[in-house]
Amino acid sequence: MNIEKGKIYVGGFTNDFTEQDLRELFSEFGTIESISIFHKRITFAHIIFTDKQSCAKAIEKYEMKKVKGITLRVGEMKITPEKEKVQDERTFGDIKMSVILVRPMHEDNIGAVGRLCANYGINKLYIVNPLCEIGEESIKVSRHGNGYIENAVICKSLEEVRKDCTLLVGYTARESSGQKNKRILMTMQEAGDMLSTMKGCVGLVFGNESNGLNTEECDACDLLNKIDIRSHYPVLNLSHAVGIALNYMHMRLRDGGDLVPEGCKEIIAKEKGELLEEWKEILHSVMNEQREVGAVESMKKLLGRVMLTEREAAALDGAFKALLHHFHEKEIHSQEINNKKEDVIEQSQN
């Protein structure tokens, strides 16, 4: 009789956890066939049991339970033999992907990108401040992607796109010079690894054919990505760059997005602006105006370089609100003391 194997996802543990640590925690539920540990944006593991019933026991005991001071996330996964794998209808796993063209100059490139959007099942095409007409030529080149051209969302700035996209990934070949505010470029593999553990709305941002993304546009992106071209001439045509980026993300997120089960994926935080406003209030209570400006700018750049999850944003929001409450209570207490002093002085004078 063939006994069906079982597979679980285990997340939430720290980098110093070893395979032996996981065996000690989970071997009580059944015979473990294999353990695979992954170090991506987060560290997690896949554990395969020789029978499926062991999975249910492990999930029942450890899901969202504290073990050795950490909260584990445990979920069941499906075992699919390689030969039985079929193309996932979700082209980018649990990511809803959009393409954003900034100041495009040529209609034919816009049309070619529209065709690519149809090829990869993109959510939306955004065009920020186009420098050319978007008409018959782009429709003609787009072929069956003409719907993306006709329904493209025209915007005046990347901030408008943020209403729909919670994470903006910019593509540029330029590395900033100097140490101050140095621009950090991720490889496509690094960005793909990060997104494979997430779910949410992501926009891939591309500059125009002449000079790419400028400094302000790069600063508006959460992550900056570089397409690795092994050549003395690393400049790509706009539509070629979009095609390479979409194909890589498609392959990485379609085939690798199943490393983390649906219920255990982190949701990309929607809004960082509220955190920045709370940070300003905190600084206003403890710093002079000159130092406050520098600290606000540093926090703004820090938030712009990280991919916050909803859980991380909620934790920061709670900490910031607790600090604000503390400062408010301290201010009230200080005011009460001053009022009492004034009363004593007034009584002594009378």
UniProtKB/TrEMBL annotation:
SUPFAM superfamilies in alphabetical order: alpha/beta knot, RNA-binding domain, RBD
Residue span, RRM domain: 6-79
Pfam families cross-referenced by the UniProt entry: RRM_1, SpoU_methylase
GO biological process: tRNA nucleoside ribose methylation
Superkingdom, taxonomy of origin: Eukaryota
Key words, A-Z: Methyltransferase, RNA-binding, S-adenosyl-L-methionine, Transferase
This protein's record includes keyword Acetylation: no
Cellular component per GO, a single term: cytosol
InterPro entries membership: Alpha/beta_knot_MTases (IPR029028), Nucleotide-bd_a/b_plait_sf (IPR012677), RBD_domain_sf (IPR035979), RNA_MeTrfase_TrmJ/LasT (IPR004384), RRM_dom (IPR000504), SpoU_MeTrfase (IPR001537), tRNA_m1G_MTases_N (IPR029026)
SMART domains in alphabetical order: RRM (SM00360)
Transmembrane residue ranges: none
Gene Ontology molecular function: RNA binding; RNA methyltransferase activity
Family membership noted in the UniProt record: Belongs to the class IV-like SAM-binding methyltransferase superfamily. RNA methyltransferase TrmH family.
The name this protein goes by in its record: RNA methyltransferase trmh family putative
